[in-house]
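Structure, all two chains, one model.
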Amino acid sequence: SYDLTQPLSVSVALGQTATITCGGNNIESKNVHWYQQKPGQAPVLVIYRDSNRPSGIPERFSGSNSGNTATLTISRVQAGDETDYYCQVWDSNTAVFGGGTKLTVL
Amino acid sequence: QVQLLESGGGLVKPGGSLRLSCTVSGFTFNDYYMYWIRQAPGKGLEWVSHISSRGDSTYYADSVKGRLTISRDNAKNSLYLQMNSLRTEDTAVYYCARLRGFVDYFDYWGQGALVTVSS
């Protein structure tokens, strides 16, 4: 099975840039999708296919994928960005999720 | 607009059964693969099962194989998850989700249905 590794938590000062990583073996060969999940709510797609932003998602959210690491970057972090983020890929016709990262805004 | 609405969650004893439903609107249901994804309390997201657009192919996580059965009724725009022989570790919020395209992203999710397995 394919494993995705995310840091349990990331902290960032208000207005600064947050970087959340998602590690996997040769992950650059896969399309990586990112979801934001606020407490008590369903996940919401924020980045699809490595670096594409759905309509309605602020330009502050961006993504990249290279080597064994995919990255979600949130610029000019706001208090409302403080929540959980999950990466997701496909492996052998199975959706695989990372363990999730809690973003804390200081 | 696209909507997915789960129902059928609740409290059940270990070994018991429950049936979840997901009723959709706002899109052509039989054009899409559909998924069940769960989230145990305080934990991450876990793929449970999915079904092809016509319902002729189904897939399950090893942790639920033989106990949970996914199905769909395209005439009723509905997705189902029959849950038998439930275990305490099946306690979770169960989301139905629409897959955008083949091995692509989940673009719409339901609000979730809580299933609690406890004696």
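The beta strands of chain A are 9-12, 18-23, 33-37, 44-47, 61-66, 69-74, 84-91, 94-97, 101-105.
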